[in-house]
Design a protein that fits this description.
13 helices; alpha/beta; Rossmann fold; Cyt_trans-like; 4-stranded parallel sheet; 5-stranded parallel sheet
């Protein structure tokens, strides 16, 4: 077994091939140092990529080291090679690592890198047969290669659109319309419905087993109920992010805190703990109550509180610093407003930037 193993890469983004490379080194070395080399010219920061890898290898004998590296790449230049080596050597040295025993790589420069460190070279799946994927392929087509990206990176990169609003203001209608609109582009897109309504059904069914005549107004809510709803809502959202690059969620944990306030008053905070684990948000779409007829389906409190609730949402979203858009007008107008901003965010998500000297990995056709 080697003592110190080294893996380097851009991990832009980290994918299954990278995981296989690191896991191979981990199985054969006492400790693995992974240098994540990121450039200012790239749209995902090196710190972000390193954080995803740290989550993936949490608890393993792996140290993830983010390294800012804006040095050009030119394998024919000894001077550039020296500059690159010094960047790597000092990234390790300041962490107390003076000796590397093995370099694990799938790249053609792996042997030269190992020689420079006075280490052995271990080539790992250089033909990409075990994992027919590359960072280039992921950047070229996120939707096609989404499942090849490690889970933490998927959750971090997914565009998240959260639809919120007061009762009977068209949140579910808009959420479903958006899912239908984008599913041809993202076939793996998963619906994220309002879990609170499902939970209410379950509570009522449980109550009716002992009291067959019980109705929804007989339910007694507690802060624990809202804690369960908020946690489950986030779990559903995270599962959707792992499935596709776009998440359309009909409410979220932040909205749950407002519904807890609505039902239990200002002094109840059962769901608030979920805000500490709230994933990043790209945009909230707040459905306006104006111009929308109130539909009483037997589960709603009443039309009179819709204006107040809408203001609560505006206040909470603003105080928390989120991007939010009030969607109003007809169904068609609301959908047009929503898709305009979502299309722009998706275009930004897919626009991976790279320095002019960056190479491209071209995969051979899979057998």
């Amino acid at each position: 077994m080697n003592k110190n193993a080294l893996v380097i890469g851009k991990f832009y983004p980290p994918h299954a091939g990278h995981r296989h490379l690191i896991e191979t080194a981990e199985a054969e070395a006492e400790h693995v140092y992974v240098l994540v080399q990121g450039s200012r010219f790239e749209s995902l920061t090196v710190e972000t990529r390193a954080a995803w890898l740290k989550e993936e290898f949490d608890g393993a004998n792996v140290t993830i080291v983010p390294v800012r590296n804006d040095c050009p790449v030119d394998y024919a230049s000894d001077e550039i090679w020296t500059a690159q080596m010094e960047n790597m050597r000092w990234a390790l040295k300041v962490r107390g690592v003076e000796k590397i025993d093995a370099v694990y790589s799938s790249e053609s420069y792996g042997a030269r890198l190992a020689e420079a460190f006075g280490a052995i070279h271990v080539a790992v799946d250089p033909q990409r047969r075990n994992h027919h994927i590359s960072g280039t392929a992921c950047r070229d087509d996120l939707a096609e290669n989404w499942q090849q990206i490690i889970p933490a990176a998927r959750c971090g990169m997914a565009v998240r659109v959260i639809v919120v609003g007061a009762e009977s203001t068209g949140t579910t209608t808009l959420s479903k319309a958006l899912s239908e609109h984008y599913r041809p582009q993202f076939p793996a897109l998963v619906d994220v419905p309002e879990y609170g309504r499902h939970y209410t059904y379950e509570l009522l069914e449980a109550l009716q087993r002992t009291n067959p005549d019980a109705a929804v107004e007989d339910l007694v809510w507690t802060d624990t109920d809202f804690a369960v709803i908020a946690a489950r809502q986030t779990e559903m959202e995270q599962a959707a992010a792992e499935s596709a690059p776009l998440v359309i969620a009909d409410t979220d944990a932040l909205a749950t805190t407002l519904w807890e306030r609505y039902y239990l008053g200002e002094g109840s905070y059962g769901s608030f703990g979920a805000l500490d684990r709230l994933p990043h948000r790209d945009v909230y779409l707040l459905t306006d109550h104006t111009g929308v007829d109130f539909e009483d389906d037997g589960w709603r409190e009443g039309e009179h509180r819709r204006p107040e609730m809408t203001e609560w949402f505006k206040e909470a979203l603003t105080e928390e610093g989120h991007s939010w858009i009030l969607v109003t007008g007809s169904r068609e107008r609301r959908l047009a407003t929503a898709t305009a901003v979502i299309d722009a965010i998706l275009a930004q998500q897919a626009a991976f930037t790279s320095p002019v000297w960056a190479g491209r990995t071209v995969l051979e056709q899979a057998a």
